[in-house]
Backbone:
DNA sequence: GTGGTCTAGACCACA
DNA sequence: GTGGTCTAGACCACA
């Protein structure tokens, strides 16, 4: 399920976090359900527990999961999981649009790209 | 002209490259003209020559500048400097739109953001 | 009556202790009356008996409850239950005021906050 | 300058961060100046570099310091260092006042404590 | 068993 | 040299 690309320049913990995020957003990992323990996932992926924990910390910071000492880590159970992500993407979008405008890309050109993407 | 923000988490070479790009795109640094030597710019900014070198490499990779051994570095002289940048931004835009679609953001929501940005 | 918030970063035993304290201070659990047994409360809340034990220990340390071997745990029957709590809060307040003073917050600023809180 | 109390239940990284914060707020470590490197401080305190880094990360999150890859870590140079702290303390104060009110401590009692503290 | 902290030490990106 | 990431593995708090 989770594949680490060692050629990728991004750190492993980031790759793991991103992949888990994807599985969460797609519903493969269900809201409220328990994630594999730090140790188990570490063994499964053949990477260090510390690295997994770092990934979990990142997802916790973004409110996708939460960890309970002595119990384990869990997918956030609010239904708004997807909203957290939408917010993040819309923010990125706003930034890109701003930059596009600044360098002289016309509104029409952007609309075209949007139409293309939603074709 | 070039101000480095050490509080910025991005590496210094990236900041230098970005700032030079900006000066190039705005025409402050004219197409075909010579850039300051790595050594001189390093002294001027009080940073390591390696860092400038790295910034120049980055701009060369993106075709904004080119280097001539023994002579120095020069702003690309094709008139389409701005087009290189537009291409890059449109590519980023395409990526973001794709992601937005995937997580269920509607076309209308995006169009709204675009209209907002171009108001 | 006792709801555990797993998203809360504090340990479960602390949450249980705090909630029991609240029920005691509000008089829902009456002075002198018996608390549910560690085992029963554990079953009721679906958490580990060790966790309840730990919560009871904490409340005992703070003199809100006392345990009798072979009989169970009881709410302290002195009438000044609330005074124990007041003492604790006033002590915390003293600490915060001290720190506020040290970093240059004026007496007036604090008085303002107090007035705000009691408005 | 920095003394670690191994009997203290708080993690070492937190103790280090708190102590550094103190030195920063008191002006012992001057705004804009460089902190000891992660490695050097680790050797000096006989603790692991990772632990120091964790402390630095914490201070960076709270904007007291910033780190530059390849250069080092620095005290934030905005003059508002103390304001960051004041904000934090006033927030704590607000919380304590709220709790005090809830358990029936009178406004006068609090004002008394304030006067005591500022005597 | 589970997450949190820590050590000892390696290697990389960057300056 | 400096911070950032990672490994291998230990011990603690908590459940």
Residues:
């Amino acid at each position: 399920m989770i594949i680490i690309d060692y050629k990728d320049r991004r750190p492993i913990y980031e790759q793991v976090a991103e992949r888990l995020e994807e599985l969460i957003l797609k519903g493969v990992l269900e809201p409220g359900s328990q994630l594999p323990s730090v140790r188990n996932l570490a063994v499964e992926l053949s990477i260090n527990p510390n690295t997994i924990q770092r990934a979990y910390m990142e997802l916790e910071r973004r409110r996708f999961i939460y960890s309970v000492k002595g119990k384990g880590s869990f997918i956030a159970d609010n239904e708004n999981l997807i909203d957290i992500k939408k917010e993040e993407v819309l923010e990125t979008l706003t930034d890109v649009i701003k930059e596009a405008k600044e360098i002289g890309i016309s509104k029409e050109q952007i609309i075209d790209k949007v139409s293309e993407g939603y074709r």
